[in-house]
């Protein structure tokens, strides 16, 4: 039935050069554009688009990342000192952040989902009780546009406000003149990591979020850490209302270490003296490190080892254990926040959850995670998982969805550009689906994260941290294709140059289905892939 397609598919995977003639990823074009003089632009033009250009100029280029990796340079306590310095340069002391009543969340998986739950609960509470007055949410990475990382009352910051605050921070940093007599002989590590006039991308956005939230009168802010915890940019906060550690596993091994206990050590660094901290059930190596670090740091750690029984009356989506753990953590964090903000708020573990909590949990919007979209002849399952554990979770969720009477060939669209270990993500995906239906995916499409075949990336997705040569030659995707061919020789495997082409290939499979069957597509492996895909599927900014 899929004969013609199979031939093209194999051609594409085995004959690299032909593809370039029709669709060449335009990553390198964006690299060239980068040399435009940011200074001139920043002083004249002040639009959102200019802000994103200026922000992109703060990305650490691939070559520098490589050099640092080879030299074994990792972030250390100095990263937080640097953040404090930048904070001072834009006019704030760490104590000013107390006004934000920060809920701080670290973890390998479920950070964003937990933060979204807390934000949604606080938002509902605000609507009925007027407390908090304004809720801030800071998350990463972004799905569709950079500005969605900074939200007020759950709405992404408008382009206008983003641009205005972005350049206020920019100007404050530029106008700062370093002390006239720098130390005569800089310490060796100053040579490695000079204090530049502007912090790198993620730190800049963190700094910007503080400026935005403080300027806008936010009085409860939910913060997701970027990488790790102890040395993350968000860890300048000294007195959070509560810290939360979501599910711990393996990711970012280059920065955090290769074992769960090392990773747990970093994440535990967000717990603060005398402050409440919460975590959920963890693997034993992680659990013991969290306990030790809580004692060492004088934090008041509560371990939520079981799912909150009050959630039995709440419809959590997806209806999966991992999500109920995220919700359990979120409820505890929201309760801690409201205890601090509203003297009339009382926690009664024996009573049902307050209606604001139930509604907040049930109506949360957290796009690109376990999303289902139906089209003629095809059902898209979209999930931004990008670690071994979360991909198994995503595969199980997909299989569960398909078993609920959805029939038709299964197709996978996958990419993961940045993580060298990503080729090992494929086993779990392949085997989970195969074990469930005995067949696995009939079609597997690997693509780059370049959104469109013709125009390349949207600005918000320009990523200088990847090797441009890899993207152009689709090195990573070819590696995936080879691996999948070994895992499942019966699958039709394709390698294509853009997300748009991957989606078109999957859509073309609808011609092969009969009756009421629909193609069952899973898009996963990377949040950028998923964000790009949603943008294409919805024909506009999906924000
Ligand atoms: N507690 C969990 N354990 C394992 N997997 C999870 C958990 N929560 C969510 N996931 C999976 O991970 C994906 C990403 O979830 P989420 O955005 O909450 O994580 P995150 O910690 O913010 O990740 P990152 O910022 O690294 O993208 C989800 O789509 C889901 O597949
Ligand atoms: Mg992560
Ligand atoms: Mg996240």
Automatic annotation (TrEMBL):
Instruction: Name any GO cellular component annotation.
Output: mitochondrial matrix
Q: Which PROSITE patterns match?
A: FOLYLPOLYGLU_SYNT_1 (PS01011), FOLYLPOLYGLU_SYNT_2 (PS01012)
Q: Which Gene3D superfamilies match?
A: Mur ligase, C-terminal domain (3.90.190.20), Mur-like, catalytic domain (3.40.1190.10)
Q: Does the entry feature the keyword Ribosomal protein, yes or no?
A: no
Q: Name one GO biological process term.
A: one-carbon metabolic process
Positions of ATP binding: 369, 383
- Reaction equation(s) it catalyzes: (6S)-5,6,7,8-tetrahydrofolyl-(gamma-L-Glu)(n) + L-glutamate + ATP = (6S)-5,6,7,8-tetrahydrofolyl-(gamma-L-Glu)(n+1) + ADP + phosphate + H(+)
**Alphabetized GO MF terms:** ATP binding; metal ion binding; tetrahydrofolylpolyglutamate synthase activity
User: What is its cofactor?
Assistant: a monovalent cation
- Recite the UniProt cofactor note for this protein: A monovalent cation.
Query: What's the top EC group for this one?
Result: ligase
Q: Which compartment or compartments is the protein found in?
A: Cytoplasm; Mitochondrion inner membrane; Mitochondrion matrix
Residues reported to bind Mg(2+): 140, 224, 252
Function according to Swiss-Prot or TrEMBL: Catalyzes conversion of folates to polyglutamate derivatives allowing concentration of folate compounds in the cell and the intracellular retention of these cofactors, which are important substrates for most of the folate-dependent enzymes that are involved in one-carbon transfer reactions involved in purine, pyrimidine and amino acid synthesis.
What protein name does the entry list?
Answer: Folylpolyglutamate synthase
